[in-house]
Design goal:
- The chain is of the alpha+beta class.
- It has six helices and eight strands; from the N terminus they run βααααβββαβαβββ.
Length: 153
């Protein structure tokens, strides 16, 4: 069900990214020029069509690509599940896959994305107190680290 992303997946990956970002981030950033101008499926597919991204991305595919995880070293750079498949364990499967295969131990989450923070906390991550501004915005990201075997790293 989880496999390495391929070029043939780019349109589906871009579709997931565009629609989930609009649903979750538009209320936070309130930037319609970005949400409905810059954030377009073809543009995102082109942006992601690089070996640096595809070589580090995995998709949940049970006949339909329903989610993706982008891992860089020990960081979860991105984790997105198509809105229509939320609550079905897909994000959990992708995150556990990355923890097992790549020993991921940190990620950055938008401070105002309470749903994502709760999700990551439910999967052993905690707010380590480090914050930084999301590039070109007034919004903060919080660093979350993995809690392996009950011990904070």
């Amino acid at each position: 069900m989880i496999r390495k992303a391929e070029r043939k997946d780019l349109s589906r990956i871009a579709e997931i990214l565009v629609f989930v970002k609009r649903i979750k981030y538009r209320p936070i950033f309130q930037n319609d020029d970005y949400s409905f101008g810059d954030l377009q499926v073809i543009r995102v597919a082109e942006e992601y069509d690089t070996p640096e991204i595809l070589d580090n991305m995995w998709v949940y595919d049970d006949g339909i690509v329903k989610g993706l995880i982008h891992v860089i070293d020990k960081e979860v750079a991105e984790l997105y599940v198509d809105y229509f498949f939320w609550g079905q364990g897909i994000g959990a499967a992708l995150l556990e896959f990355a923890k097992d295969k790549f020993k991921v131990n940190f990620l950055w989450a938008l401070e105002k994305n309470a749903d994502a923070i709760r999700f990551y906390e439910a999967h052993g991550f905690y707010d380590c107190g480090e914050r930084k501004l999301e590039e070109d915005t007034p919004e903060y990201l919080i660093k979350m680290k993995a809690d392996h075997a009950g011990e904070k790293i």
